[in-house]
Amino acid sequence: MKGGTYTALIEGLSDADSGNGYINKESGENGFNPIGRALTFGHEVFGHGRSAVLGRLDSQHSDAIQLENLILRVMGKGNIQRDGSNHDNNTKISNASAIPSYR
User: Fold this and answer.
1) What residues does each domain of the chain span?
2) 61-to-14, 72, 73, 76, 78 alpha-carbon distances in Å
3) pTM for this structure?
4) Pairing of strands 80-81, 30-31
5) Which of 1, 24, 35, 55 could cross-link 39 (Cys pair, CB 3.0–4.6 Å)?
């Protein structure tokens, strides 16, 4: 039997409970997930999941945030980005808008 990972996405949290780490680059204000389930799915499965499968355990934080920011740009919400300051270890990522290097 092969090993693997599992992802559980829980819905139903209020905006306040799910975090406001989305920064509007035009106004500088923090906001909430502007897309919803699709963005969360991409962040968890493709941001953390692909990174983990490739053995990139030390870059889980930056890979997931960078991938999420890429999804925001592709979906027309490029003015809203995350910097990592309220994710995982609460460390701001200097290149948060870069494309993840695992491509």
Assistant:
1) 22-103
2) 23, 17, 19, 23, 20
3) 0.86
4) unpaired
5) 35
